[in-house]
Structure formats: C-alpha cells, structure tokens
Amino acid sequence: MGTFMKRDISSVAIKPYDLIGKGWFLITAGTPQDHNTMTASWGMTGVLWGKNVVCVAIRPQRYTFGYVDKGDTFTLSFFHEEHRRALSICGSKSGRDCDKEKEAGLTSVTVDGHLTYEEAYAFVACKKLYCQDIDPAMFIDPSLDNAHYPQKDYHRMFIAEITDLYVK
C-alpha cells in the first residue's frame, strides 16, 4: 500500500476546500491499544499564533470526543474516493457499539508514534493548543443555530498545531 513519508507542510500544495469540504477525513485519537476514529467534513486550516493550525469541530456525544478532549494529540487522515464507504461507516457507527475499523475494513497503524490508517494517502499529526464550545449567544446569523443545532448539541472547536505531515 505504500510507505508514509514525512514532508514539510510548506512543500505540499493543498486545496483546503476540496480536502476538507468536499472530501471526508478521519479524526483519530487515543493510543494504539485504545483509540477511536470518526469521519468529519467540517474544519479549517491556516496560521494562528505563528503556527500552522487546523480547527476541527466535534459534538460532545461523539465517542471520539472523549479521546480528543482528554488527549494532547490527534491525527487527521485523508483518503481517496474509493474509501468513501469505509468513511461512511466510521461516520455513522459508534465505537461504543462496534469495531468500526473492522466493519470499515481499515487497518490502524502507528507512524512515528502517530495513529493513522494504512489505507490513507496522507495524514497530519496535530497537537492541541486551544478548545472552546460553540456559544449560541455569539451567532450573528441565528439561522445557523436553528439549522445546525436543533437539539442544542453544540460542537467543541479544537485548534491544534500541525506538527507533522505524512504522504505516500
């Protein structure tokens, strides 16, 4: 399947709106023995506090939330379109109830101490810097609150430094 090679993030052309908005990715946290992953399609990337960062949004009821919240690091793994079914399983099933990796046909691997998946074509290792819950009082456009949070289950936003980038 290929070997992950560490790359300088500034040497890789990234289209964030395609990579994050149109594509799906997995957020993975925990240890090789005890971890969970979830599919996401919302997020941001940029520069903040002089660091290359990502920001991901996770609802508190997601099983992966606890792993990301209590840990210092997580990874974002990116897949080609042929893995859409696997990512759909990881987004619709809970690790509380089943072995999502097995059902999705994914193989977790550790690369330089970072959890990812053999089937991914790239991943970024992230170190948490900041988190904050979405505050409904801060919506300028209240239609966003009504459309995305009818059950008032607001995301927690995690801002993390991209510490490493790996590609195949």
Average predicted confidence as pLDDT: 94
Task: Using the alpha-carbon principal axes, give the shape.
Answer: globular
Distance between the termini: 9 Å
Q: Kindly identify the CATH topology.
A: Pnp Oxidase, Chain A
The total beta strand count reads 10
**Low-confidence stretches at least 5 residues in length (pLDDT < 50)?**
none
Q: Approximately how much beta-strand content do the residues carry?
A: 35-45%
CATH superfamily: Electron Transport, Fmn-binding Protein, Chain A
Roughly how much helix do the residues carry, as a percent range?
A: 10-25%
Which H/E pattern describes the elements? Answer: EHEEEEHEHHEEEHE
CATH class term: Mainly Beta
Instruction: Provide the structure class.
Output: alpha+beta
What does this structure look like?
It is a single chain. With 168 residues, the chain is of the alpha+beta class. It has a single domain (5-167), classed as Electron Transport, Fmn-binding Protein, Chain A (Pnp Oxidase, Chain A, Roll). It has helices at 16-22, 63-70, 84-92, 100-104, 142-148, and strands spanning 5-7, 25-30, 35-40, 43-48, 51-58, 73-78, 108-111, 114-117, 122-133, 156-167. Strands 1, 2, 3, 4, 5, 6, 9 and 10 form an 8-stranded antiparallel beta sheet that branches. It has a two-stranded antiparallel sheet with strand order 7-8. The chain is globular. The N and C termini lie close together (9 Å).
